[in-house]
Design goal:
Helix content: 40-55%
Radius of gyration: 13 Å
Number of helices: 4
Strand content: under 5%
Shape: globular
Structural class: mainly alpha
Number of domains: 1
């Protein structure tokens, strides 16, 4: 699997494992909020959108390569509200589409 040109290791990680790998650690519910932001605005997280419901797909697999983006969201969330973080990623996505 590739993400942003980086090769992902094929070892699946559980939501709880990923949540505990973030610094500082987060709950599974908080990780879900970060995944929700990522899936809406980052192409490498599109598979996390359930095609039927449009919501978060609980069966999508997480890999080590996803951690860096989720850590970035975590770091931003420590300084800003989740609404602000989502707005930031929305702006980044619109800039990427324009280029």
């Amino acid at each position: 699997m590739e993400t942003r040109g980086l090769s992902c290791q094929h070892e699946e990680l559980t939501r709880l494992e990923v949540a505990s790998l973030l610094t500082p650690k987060v709950s599974a519910r908080q990780l879900q909020a970060y995944l929700n932001i990522a899936r809406k605005y980052l192409p490498e997280f599109k598979k996390f959108t359930n095609e039927k419901t449009g919501g978060l797909d609980g069966y999508a697999k997480l890999y080590e390569c996803h951690i860096a983006v989720l850590q970035e969201i975590r770091s931003l969330a420590r300084e800003h509200t989740l609404a602000d973080v989502e707005s930031e990623f929305r702006q980044r996505a619109s800039k990427t589409r324009k280029n």
